Amino acid sequence: MISLRGVTLIYPNGTRALDGVDLEIAKGSFVFLVGHSGTGKSSLLRLLYREQLPSSGEVVVDNIRVDKLKRSRVPALRRNVGVVFQDFKLLAERTVWENVAFALQVTGARTRDVMRQVPRVLDLVGLAHKSRVFPNELSGGEQQRTAIARALVNNPKILLCDEPSGNLDPVNTNEIMDLLHRINLKGTTVVIATHNALVVDRMRRRVIRLEHGKILADEERGFYHVTTTEAGAIDAAAGSATRVNNGLGQSTLFSE
Amino acid sequence: MDWGKVRFFLSEVGNNFTRSIVMQLTAIGTVTIMIVLLGTFLFTQETLGKIGGDIVRQIEISVFLNDKATPADARALTLALRADPQVKTVVYIPKTEGLRQMRELLRGQIDTSLLTINPLPEKLRVQVVDPESVHAVAARIVKKPNVANVEYQRDAVERLLRLSEVMGRIGLGFIVLLVLTAAIIISNTIRLTVYARRREIAIMQLVGASNTYIRLPFICEGFIDGFLGALLALVLLAVGRWQLWPKLLSALPFIPLHDAGIDLRLFALQLLGVGAAVGIVASWISVGRYLRT
To answer: Chain B partners of A111 at a C-beta cutoff of 8 Å?
Structure first.
């Protein structure tokens, strides 16, 4: 479903966001991307919906060579890849229903499909009763569920989430993660970039750890915290990174 | 026809329009001024062109034959000149007719009975097809046998021809400047709307709306600015045409002003077209620049 081969991304200011990344994500997977700020998680997600082009290497999403994709073909790719952000990116002057319908309407969907799909996803995210409410009248969790509904309304095969619980309290975070889990059970591939150790540890899904633009670890049922062996590798990669003991006999890196 | 889609699209255009209403009115006002000036200018130029054309058309070459020329020579020359494709008409005025005309002209001013001899030569009056060819035709005629002299209002012709050429050039520059001004203002208006809607545009791009779909409401907005501006200008121009023009005609009776032959309906359509086209092109450019970045 998703494949990266030798992907390097260097920003114009010289920052090496990704450095020779090789990665395979199978259809229907549920994957966490973890690592500190600036380790390349968001950059990696941006490559997948072609917000960013790699400096070198191959990016394949749903059998499409994204790195070679013509500009005119980008909209077709994005209808297959839903994206959710930490700051929700909802339109304040539109209701929940209108925010979700917007994603269908601007891609030229028929009114009949809009009328069928929007209630279906609002029901899925548990917001059917709030469809006429404006975003600023919703809780953070509800706003994020609206954003997820919008990302899902086009029936994408892949859902990318960039820090989806970054602005949420633990209760709302758990609700969102349960929702993402249910979405995954319906067959959608879910990739989540996160800082949230509790979420990662609770769900015990595949964890891909990025450090300085490189994949340091890739565990099938992983934890957020790094093992001592991995910590040594991180030190070697980072050089000056600060390492502390987290009190559980495991090492973790300071995050801000 | 999916009316839901149409309604959504129109509401998007409406949102664009109402969100920056002051700028929209500025853009419409600029187009109005542009089209009023353009319309007035083109109308004036067309009218002046007609006056100039009338004067130039009336210019004729007087051909005087020498003393030895007989009426037969004059008729032969008349026939020869009529064969020239650049010559429209040739009228032969025999010296007896010339004298009669002179007597008519001078009647009451001098005692015409004193005109006992005829000093006038045989004369031809020649009109040319194209006023610009008057020099060439005159030069050809003067080389013909028996021709003593040709006379025509050389300076008047040259001045008129040069004036209309210069007016045309100044007019073209003027029109280009006006169109550019309107285009820049519409382009800025659309840029403001694009900026006001940048979040929507970002989301449209994120969920896979095509660039054409994103662009279309802004193009419509530019079209509306241009079209409404031009429409308003046409109303003002129409008021001018039906209210001021008759007053101008009566105030300047010595200038042969007339707008017969100007198709006002076609003229109005052309002005509407210019307004709409300026709006569309300006918005196309400003959205295109945003979408590329």
So the answer is: 2-5
